Amino acid sequence: MLEVGQAAPDFTGTDCQGRPFSLSALRGRRVVLFFFPKAFTIACTEETRHFRDNHERIQSLGAELVGVSVDTVKTQCEFAEQEDIHFSLLGDEARTISKAYDVLWPVLRVDRRVTYIIGPEGVIESVIRHEVRVYKHLDDVLRYLREHPLPTAGA
Hints:
single chain; alpha/beta; five-stranded mixed β-sheet; two-stranded antiparallel sheet
């Protein structure tokens, strides 16, 4: 698992609007990157809904939200449509993003439930892990963003 202070590996993908996505394109902004095992499962749906329902709040605290699982892009897009998700959800069927972030369960080959908060310079600021208590990811993200505000332009 990657640690606080390490550079966040860049990656590319395609979001559910068919647009190319790259982490490096978000440089200069804070990113909340959350990994979850599988779309449409009970716990993953609950976690994603928590993020969906607080997406604007996360943005108001200065962060962009991105979700990743080992599902296909098609499955992620069906999940995004069903759950009315408007932040980037990426399918990582080839597991390249998951490997780069060292979040794959060794035998199951699905993502661990891990959230990385990445700073504007591309460095990991926080690592959040709760496999069972899915609501804790959002709680911990909001707490971190409130306690570590980014300086505003001109401040």
